[in-house]
Design a protein that fits this description.
The chain is of the alpha+beta class. The chain is about 30% helix and about 30% strand. The strands form 6 sheets. Strands 12, 15, 18, 19, 22 and 23 form a 6-stranded antiparallel β-sheet that branches. It has a 5-stranded parallel β-sheet with strand order 3-2-1-4-5, with helices on both faces. A 4-stranded antiparallel β-sheet has the order 6-9-7-8, with helices on both faces.
């Protein structure tokens, strides 16, 4: 079978690698892909948002399955476009992707179907929003309603901070014209529950935890994710049952009810608060870097899973019982400005998986080409061992302009 993976980051590298382990797959295309992916797939220079060009490519090349990585492609309507041409695609329609792309859609759906989440109110008017914040408690959470590349959420500890954020979002329209969702501040460990979904059918993956802050101890600015691991000692089987029944299945059912039936990966960004598990956000796709620690544990045929879920059949999905832990190497300065083009050595020496996030090939050598550059993932019988192994292996990577966290996974033992 010929398959096409749309996207370019570490998540797509992990998807491509999982597909490459399938005996059914004889050719993988990746658009646009990256230098690491190029070792496993033919990279095609088409952007994720050029959905019609991607559709034409799929038709011309006899692609039988397309898997979508990033939300920008979903919001551009890639699934709608492929479905109109009767092409099999793993990813939700534009309407269903609103669960990620519109905070208000997600919040309204959760309220209507009693999916547990933080209390909230939506505003378009600056003065009304400010009055609401002033009447409430701090900290408070302000979310721009739309895709803002991870920068649309502000946790305001002071009134000045809240006012500044509201000014940015509603008066200065920094992310474009839009609304703001103001919500109750929740506390507790966060975790990600990703599920394969088609309509009412929901199949969970192992839970994972991301690390969004740039530096050790959860200090520094928010990033696209600095590391992740699977096997969360603080999440019990009961917690997972609760989250599956009251959050993931209920939401999938609600989407069908709302005529926005979901097909793809529904990502629950959840928090275990003292008042129960609640939704922080939904995503309409695989998480990054969660995917890089989840998919290496898949024992089943990745291609068959995608096809079965997309076709509405019951997939066979088995996971090994190992723990995984991944540490991201990022360019110094990230998530602010950074330089590119530094040579990276030692990748072949890693005893584990290396997924490329932002690299390029120059004179036969890998060089840095993005903010997050790569992730080193190790697997072991226990989380402690996976952590020790990843922290040791990552030292083999030699590059003058990279940094990484040395405490990925520490939180697991502290909650
Ligand atoms: P989001 O883009 O909605 O995932 O928000 C980004 C991050 O902000 C989350 O991963 C949380 O750490 C934090 N956050 C979002 N909403 C809340 C909330 N209601 N209470 C506390 N923290 C939150
Ligand atoms: N790991 C967070 C995300 O993929 O949005």
């Amino acid at each position: 079978m010929k398959v096409l993976v749309v996207g370019s980051g570490g998540r797509c590298h992990a998807i491509v690698e999982a597909l490459s382990r399938s005996s059914q797959v004889d050719k993988i295309f990746c658009a646009p892909g990256n230098a690491g992916i190029a070792a496993l797939a033919e990279c095609v220079a088409i952007k994720e948002t050029q959905v019609e060009t991607l559709r034409d490519f799929a038709i011309e090349n006899g692609v039988e399955l397309t898997v979508v990585g990033p939300e920008v492609a979903l919001e551009a309507g890639i699934a709608d476009c492929f479905k109109e041409s009767n092409l099999r695609i793993f990813g939700p329609t534009k309407k269903a992707a609103q669960i990620e792309c519109s905070k208000q859609f997600a919040k309204d759906l959760m309220l209507k179907y009693e999916v547990p989440t933080a209390a909230y109110k939506t505003f378009t008017d600056f003065d009304e929003a400010l009055a609401y914040v002033k009447a409430g408690e701090l900290p408070t959470v302000l979310k721009y309603d739309g895709l803002a590349a991870g920068k649309g959420v502000v946790i305001a500890e002071s009134m000045e901070q809240a006012e500044e954020a509201l000014r940015d979002m509603l008066l200065d329209e920094k992310f474009g014209k839009g609304k703001v969702v103001i919500e109750e501040y929740l506390e507790g460990p966060e975790f990600s529950l990703l599920c394969f979904v088609n309509g009412h059918d929901v199949y969970p993956m192992p839970v994972a935890q991301d690390h969004k802050r740039a530096y050790n101890g959860d200090k520094g600015p928010n990033t696209g994710g600095m590391g992740a691991y699977t096997e969360l000692p603080f999440i019990t089987d009961e917690d997972i049952d609760y989250a599956m029944n009251n959050i993931m299945r209920r939401t999938a059912d609600a989407m069908v009810e709302e005529d926005a039936s979901f097909c793809g990966v529904l990502y629950g960004g959840l928090m275990k608060t003292k008042n129960g598990i609640k939704v922080i956000e939904f995503n309409a796709r695989f998480g990054d870097p969660e995917t890089e620690v989840i998919l290496p544990r898949l024992k089943s045929d990745m291609c068959q899973v995608f096809c079965d879920v997309a076709d509405g059949k019951t997939p066979v999905i088995e996971w090994d019982d190992q723990a995984t832990l991944g540490v991201v190497l990022a360019s110094k300065g990230y998530p602010g400005s950074y330089e590119k083009g530094y040579t990276i050595e030692g990748i072949e020496e890693i005893d584990g998986s290396v997924y490329h996030m932002g690299t390029a090939l120059k004179d036969g050598k890998y060089v840095t080409a993005g903010g997050r550059v790569m992730i080193v993932v190790c697997k072991a019988a226990s989380l402690k061992e996976a952590q020790a192994k990843a922290n040791a292996e990552i030292e083999k990577i030699k590059c003058d302009n990279l940094f990484y966290r040395t405490d990925i996974g520490d939180k697991a033992f502290k909650y």
